[in-house]
Automatic annotation (TrEMBL):
Positions of the Transposase IS200-like domain: 5-120
GO process terms (BP): DNA transposition
Organism: Adhaeretor mobilis
Cited InterPro entries: Transposase_17 (IPR002686), Transposase_17_sf (IPR036515)
MF term (GO), any: DNA binding
Name this polypeptide is given: Transposase IS200 like protein
Amino acid sequence: MPSTHQQLLYHIVFSTKNRKPYLQNEQFRTDLFAYMAGITKNLDGFALEIGGWVDHVHLLVRIPAKVAVSDFVGRLKANSSKHVNETSDSLHKFGWQEGFGAFTVSVSQKDAVAEYIKTQAEHHSRESFQEEYVRLLKCHGVDYDARYVFD
């Protein structure tokens, strides 16, 4: 076959450093998520949905085959935290946690995952980020050691 064809969607989740509620301001979140969509585009990816709550972010993204998920997330975090630290007077030493969760998403489920990401405020009225993240790990069959899930 002379060319490569793929359709890989990822649901990526990560937290602010020490789960600090840096993302409390709705306008700040909106601006940050738009900036992250731009970073994704610059990395030759496509953001179908970006959302989150006060201490974490969810992304539904398409990443090109030539880019490893860990490289994509590392560059996304580095560029977005640098942007926040350079442009925000109110946030000091903004950063993301070291790790992340990445889960593949079937094209048939992309709308459901996008809706889930859009409605984070509703989800977190009844479930903490820690509970949500552990539930996602279990739902996707990811083995984990509870001692090392959160920083």
